[in-house]
Write the structure tokens for this entry.
Amino acid sequence: MSETPVENERVVSIFIDAPIQQVWDEITKTAGVQRPLYNTVLSGDLTPGSRLRYASPDHKRVFVVGEVIEVTPPTRFVHTYIMTIDPDPETTVAWDLAEEGSGCRVTLTHSGWTDEHRTAEKTVKTWTEILGLVKSEVESGTIPLKTRLTYGAMRLFSFALPKRTSADYADEQGW
């Protein structure tokens, strides 16, 4: 086991044609479903040091857990990140927003990767998809039909998810 970072950061950026505050509100929304983030509900009080969770809308499944590191509205949101379905060692996600012309640029930096992580290679593709969905949601008020259908199928088969995604398991782990 090595703690030497291998390509420590993954960075993805997108322009969203909407005011920075609107994008911030979508990314940090705790009252309601965040459709771009795999139809999850973000819970936690979003203050540094507090726990956060991205859970299913019924809160029975928890997909991502972490701790809030920094919240500087409407430009920066940083938290640690552990994906419960396939847990790797903790990493860090930083959302940076900057006004750009009539809209804003969102830059997501996922860092802390080491050679212990098994999911590092999937990260850029996943965040690229998520940022595209954030853009779609904020600019048009919806996400593609194909994505909504995928979410429906995921909900139907949620009974088959590993135990480590259950809220009870997350509670037992102190997540």
Notes: The first helix runs from residue 20 to 27.
